[in-house]
Amino acid sequence: MLYLTGNSENIIYTNVSVNKELSNPTYLMSLTHQQTLKKWTFIPQNITPQSGTPYNSRYDIFKFNLVDENTPEDLTGGTRAWYWQSSPNFVYDDIRLKGTGLSYPKLIIWNNTLNFFAVQFDWSETDDRMDDVNGTGFTVTINDRPYTGNTFVFRQAGGGGTDEGRISNIYPTISTNPPIPFEDVYKISYTGTSTGGTSMTGTIYVPTGQQVASAEPWKYYGDEYANYLRSYPITHLNTPNIEVDEIGEFRYAIYEEANPLGLNTATAYNQLEVGLAYITELFSDTFYDDGETSEVYDSEND
After folding, report:
1. How far is residue 99 from each of residues 96, 286, 298, measured CA to CA in Å?
2. pTM
3. Structural domains in the chain plus CATH codes
């Protein structure tokens, strides 16, 4: 049983990730009133990476706001995230971690007008690298539109030898100038082929530059500034608001979803957890007791 409070922030603990089938799902949650069958569907904010031990190793921790009609709804507020990931090879310089053949996306906030979306590649073959972005077909789309701005390649390893060029960083420079204002960005997709034929592709959903600059999410982990050598967990910055105008007993369900913005439970990939939830209203009214009878005085309706 989940005990939730209306007109308030709610944090719940679940174990849904142990049953997931998707590698990196979006968790979709629904609340259905047991009597009226009215249903609310939303994407809760996943605060598991921010919770600290021991909770983030035992539970999935979600946060959402149950609000009244005076607060705008934001059912997908938890989907925008700060991404800062680095190759384990790059972070730890450990021979056992080299050559993963994977890509690691980042979002670097340089200042109010200049931002870098970076992709760090750790090639699986020693002669595999990204020497020429344009020549190898590396492309970036922003909100499904091709990005044609400035892009440069930086190869981390140097000095010759078998590790030459093993770590490559691709930096599309995104500013508030055309072709697109960065404050509207929420979806960035990338694809590319290396000199050795390795194909890299991915899509991430990010917050706006203004959101990241104001939140400074790296401070969640004890840093006063972004340490480019560290790899930060995915940190969601926004808490969704759901206008639930019922109280009492609900049926809740949590799904895994491949679409980070999808709200349709009928098309969700898999249902992971189901149970009962009880929502009580957060009263600010006065309680009177004359010793014989008890009543609650509702200051708005009485």
Report:
1. 9, 65, 66
2. 0.62
3. 2-78+238-286 (2.60.40.10), 81-235 (2.60.40.10)
